[in-house]
Amino acid sequence: MKRVILGLLVLATSAIADIPGDADVLFLGEVHDNPAHHARQAEIVAMVQPKAIVWEMLDSEEAGRVTSELVGDQGGLDAALGWTGSGWPDFAMYYPIFAAAPDAVHYGAELPRDKARDVMQEGRPSVSIRHEDLHRMLMAEIVDPVKLNPLLDLQRVSHCNALPEEMLPLMVDVQRVRDTMLAAGAAIALEETGGPVVVITGNGHARKDWGAPGLLAAVEEDAIIWALGQGEDGRGDPDGGFDLVESSPPVDREDPCAVFRKN
CA-to-CA distance for 260 and 214, rounded, in angstroms? Predict the structure, then answer.
């Protein structure tokens, strides 16, 4: 079976892109708190009707609670997942994605906060990836300096230049674990359902150059990767080697660096 991996980072103002009809895996990126991005994701999910959806926001146990019957009850689904209070943005933004494909099977790829702390304290061996090949890749990965420096810069900037330099490689480790968990979730979902599979994740994990799509491509060697990037008007396009970048109105949010200045 020909497999097409779409790394979709979607920004919600332009018309639906030409998505190949035989796509197997679609990475739909987002800025987590932008409702227009989630509306775009729901639009694409409704069009594709994936057999499976992989979530950065859910672990495997939580994802296993989703049933087609529960998908019809927004409040019930929110409660079953424990979404409200989890730290993720308002469930009302994400619910239309569930509702757009009520018969999809759901897979969780979240790295819980306690496990992220373990990675920072004990390194990558503190986690076990459910896909054997991807687990080996994660444990053996040595990021060359050409790739490592941009990864360090990404963590430096995303944490407002407030982290000690010695913490940045640990943050890169956490990022790589999350990338690998998403790739593993997509690979397992594809193997178990035959696809198409949609992955709901942040832009950083869906980027084509070093994110989850590249890891998935390494274990699906015949895959075609297509990346769609999603940004906000006036705030620059997301980097990541995407094949298509769209933009949507920005969210009025507090300065994310304010918390670091308070400390």
Answer: 32
State the average pLDDT over residues 201-213: 93
What is the value of pTM for the model shown? 0.90
Distance CA 74, CA 92 (A): 8
Extract the tokens encoding 14. Answer: 């332009």
Preceding omega of 112 cis (within 30 degrees of 0): no
Instruction: Please state whether 85 falls in left (phi above 0), alpha (psi between -120 and 50) or beta.
Output: left
3-state helix, strand, coil in the chain (%, to 5): 45, 15, 40
**For residue 134, what are its two tokens?**
């991807």
d(CA 144, CA 149): 9
Nearest to 187 by CA among 118, 247, 133, 249: 133
In this model, does residue 130 exceed pLDDT 70? Answer: yes
Q: Compute the distance between CA of residue 117 and CA of residue 101 in angstroms, rounded to an integer.
A: 34
- Pick the closest to residue 32 from 204, 213, 160 (CA basis): 204
3-class secondary structure, 43: helix
